[in-house]
Design a protein that fits this description.
The protein is an all-alpha fold. It has one domain. The chain has 9 helices and no strands. Helix 3 runs antiparallel to helix 5 and helix 5 packs antiparallel against helix 6. The C terminus is likely disordered.
């Protein structure tokens, strides 16, 4: 992998991890203070406020954990994107002031994550050579066997 590709992949992984972490913090506040938010949560697209808040909390809290680690990140980011984009369009009426900016910002970031391919966290660490992959370890042992000497043969010499 070239240096430029590594930087691009690292940028995608960093963005995915940071956006997912921010969404987890954003969703955990809704989960902790559910009884407070349920009173003022708006009815959007005919969905009652309690159900809408539950869907929003699920999309922002437990579904963002796999996104942070890169497992099924596109699939898990879709509900959060749908919730936040519909909040920007229907609740905030496409206005760019106050809390509507956060909904738009999160929607854009999640949309980019949905459209951009990227490896999971372990693959990224392997590319950066932080941890060795199993194929790399097998290749080095295969090279030793091809030379006719294994580790035990070297110690016996």
């Amino acid at each position: 992998m070239t240096r430029q590709n590594r930087r691009c992949v690292f940028g995608i992984v960093l963005m995915r991890t940071l956006v997912a972490s921010l969404m987890i913090v954003h969703g955990s506040d809704k989960a902790i203070n559910f009884h407070v938010y349920v009173r003022d949560f708006p009815q959007v697209l005919g969905i009652p406020g309690t159900l809408g808040l539950a869907i929003t909390t699920i999309a922002q809290l437990p579904l963002m954990i796999p996104v942070a680690f890169g497992y099924y990140s596109r699939l898990c980011a879709l509900p959060a994107f749908a919730v936040l984009f519909s909040a920007f369009v229907f609740h905030h009426s496409l206005r760019l002031h106050g809390n509507s900016e956060l909904a738009l910002l999160y929607s854009i970031c999640l949309g980019v994550l949905i459209l951009s391919p990227g490896p999971d966290l372990l693959t990224m660490l392997r590319h950066c050579r932080v941890i060795k992959s199993q194929t790399t370890m097998n290749a080095t042992s295969g090279e030793r066997q091809a030379q006719g000497k294994t580790r035990t043969d070297r110690t016996n010499d």
